[in-house]
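Quarterly update from the structural biology core.
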Amino acid sequence: MKTLDLLHRWFGGLIGLVLAVLGFSGALLVHKDAWVLLPHASDTQVQETNAIAAAVERIMADPATRPEMITFAGQDFGLNRLRFADGRGAYTDQAGNLVARWNSQWERPELWLFDLHHHLFAGDTGESVIGIAAIAGLFFIISGIILWIRTRKTFEFRLLPKRMSRPAILRHHRDLGVVAAPLLILALLTGAILVFRPMAALILGPAAPGQIDASLKAPSVPHVPLAAKYNGRALIEEARAHFPSAEVRSLSLPRQGSGLVTLRMKRPDEWLPNGRTTLWFAADDGRMIKARDASRLPQVVKIYNMLYPLHAAKVGGLSYRLVMTFAGLALGLLGTLTLWSFWFARKRVKRPVRQLIKVHR
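Predicted structure, tokenized:
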């Protein structure tokens, strides 16, 4: 038990800052759509085929200003988001009229906060660090529950410690941790699986990573250039003919040598915000290459597609968002106060000074 306690304290002291950043940023991102204060952000979602097709035509009309991706307005956010290849971006209303633009993510707090939570501003390296931190966080929770059992008779739930002394912080830490443990396990486990394929194999089965990659892979076609006047209306209309009840969620132009235009849709039974029902169209003449129905994906892939909505509170409405907000704030507090108690709140032990007594003979 002493070894477990030592590992819990030292690992927590070393990685607590990363967990605190993930917790606080995640709590804010859960409500991201509510604090983007722009005109038309609260507009009701429009999914009428002609309206979406007209907006696509307007946005994609000029090849010189054409974005590489459009994410269409959702049920909780009334603006289309445009992404350009050079890092620029913009919001438009659902008719395609410009509302706001930016030249880098630093001009939009919701964008750099998302990058902080998902990559720590460090790309793939930061994502790997986050995955390691999530796995370490799972160790903290399990070991913390085991260590809490010894002191369970003194349990007292508080949102904040009584005082900023080390004993009070440690008591608050273990009691808050055991209350938030189920939610923290959910948040950290789903995050770790989304980052690391080996975690998917461990939780969903050895064959899961291969099934996920194969099921979500785009079809392989020769590279063809994008037509100067691409018929976006025909693309939207054909997609709706295949999946009449599905929401149109995003449109992506070819990237990295691909010859495909990708349209993602969300069927009513899907949890993923942008869905996994996908259609691919040839970039030159617009013919449909392949359509993938998310309802026919293997069961393990369907479960994998549920992880992000659970992690980011994209299902369950306001009540679940509030629950995951508590989880994020709890993780932030646990990480922050762990750092404080481990590195700064320790009392220095005063060692007695030996006095040399000279014996005169």
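The two ends are 54 Å apart (CA to CA).
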